[in-house]
Write a structure and sequence with these properties.
8 strands, alpha/beta, 181 residues, Rossmann fold, two-stranded antiparallel sheet, 7 helices, single chain, 22% strand, 36% helix
């Protein structure tokens, strides 16, 4: 495990969605003191969209979902992070967060952030009944299922969790949070 940073940092988790991926990566690149946590699918999708996962945050640490026990969760216990951002968050990740599953790196750090009273900001991908979303080679129309929309709605009620619908609202919520600390 790496040395504890001098001051708490921002933890940013990326899941396997191309929806708002480019906008999220743009926000990350403009931040200081941020570490990236990739789900397995998140790392794959970042590559599919033409990015090197290691280069998204050249000055930050990068964690990948490669261990059953998610060792990086210990960083939340020792106070390395002041905020967790999960963006973009797939419907699968949102459902697991709502149901309390912590079986991936991302869902595990979300659970541990909550247990440590570290605020989370989640950019859920499924927020509207009909959406246009980028695939690696084109824009496609998608219709999120009612269950996906219901999970997004339910996550809004969770303590220390802010759910946003688009990158502008993500940036506004993150800016407000950074001013608090």
């Amino acid at each position: 495990m790496q040395a504890k940073p001098e001051k708490p940092r921002l933890a940013w988790a990326v899941t396997g969605s191309g929806h708002y991926l480019e906008e999220c990566l743009d926000i990350v690149r403009d931040l200081d003191d941020v570490d990236i946590f990739y789900s397995r699918a998140g790392e794959e999708v970042v590559r599919m969209y033409g990015h090197d996962p290691k280069e998204v945050t050249p000055s930050g640490r990068v964690y990948r979902d490669r261990a059953a026990s998610s060792p990086p969760v210990g960083l939340f216990y020792r106070g390395d992070y002041h905020t967790l951002v999960v963006a973009p968050a797939t419907s699968n990740t949102v459902a697991k967060m709502v149901l309390g599953f912590s079986d991936t790196l991302v869902t595990n750090i979300y659970a541990q952030a909550g247990k440590c009273r570290i605020p989370s900001i989640v950019l859920a991908c499924d927020t509207e009944p009909e959406m246009d979303t980028p695939a690696p080679d084109r824009i496609v129309k998608v219709w999120p299922r009612e269950v996906d929309l219901a999970h997004t709605h339910k996550l809004r009620s969770y303590e220390a969790t802010t759910v946003v619908e688009n990158p502008d609202k993500l940036l506004a919520a993150l800016t407000a949070r950074l001013k608090e600390i």
